[in-house]
Amino acid sequence: MAVPIETDRAQVMNVARWYLPHLLALTASSPYYLGATPGTPYRTILWRRWPRTGAPLRFSDEKEFQQLLRLLLDTKRIDGPGRLYWDLRPHHEYRTLEFRIADVTLRIDDAMVAAALARG
């Protein structure tokens, strides 16, 4: 989702993060793992094992987000800004927010609806 230059992406992210569970529920298409039903999409269960995943933290502004990113890079917790695997994150090159929570939908129409909801 493109964010205008005058808009703080962290503020938009603070609001958008509340809709992440809804977007996941609407796009869930991996309900089984090894023949069992885990209750939520399997990819979500697999990824929550790793640090720097899940819903993003709440930031007062984009400067605070950049400070955390710089700390993670300086302490070698991550080797690049793309290694922050939150379900929603500011892109490190473009003035966008990346919605990374959605599972893989089975139909193109469903993917288009999920993209439209994220953009809205």
What does this entry look like structurally?
There is one protein chain. It contains 5 helices and 4 strands. A two-stranded parallel sheet has the order 1-2. It has a two-stranded antiparallel sheet with strand order 3-4. The termini are close together. 39% of the residues lie in helices and 8% in strands. It is mostly helical and 120 residues long. The chain has one domain.
* Oligomeric nature of the chains: single chain
Count up the domains: 1
Distance between the termini: 9 Å
Would you identify the regions where 5 or more consecutive residues have pLDDT less than 50?
Answer: none
Strand order of the largest sheet: 1-2
A few lines on this structure:
The chain is mainly α. The chain has helices at residues 9-16, 20-27, 42-47, 62-74, 108-119, and strands at 53-54, 85-86, 88-90, 97-99. The protein is 39% helix and 8% strand.
Task: Chart the SSEs and their pairings.
Elements: H1 9-16, H2 20-27, H3 42-47, E1 53-54, H4 62-74, E2 85-86, E3 88-90, E4 97-99, H5 108-119
Parallel strand pairs: 1-2
Antiparallel strand pairs: 3-4
List keywords for this structure.
120 residues; 4 strands; 39% helix
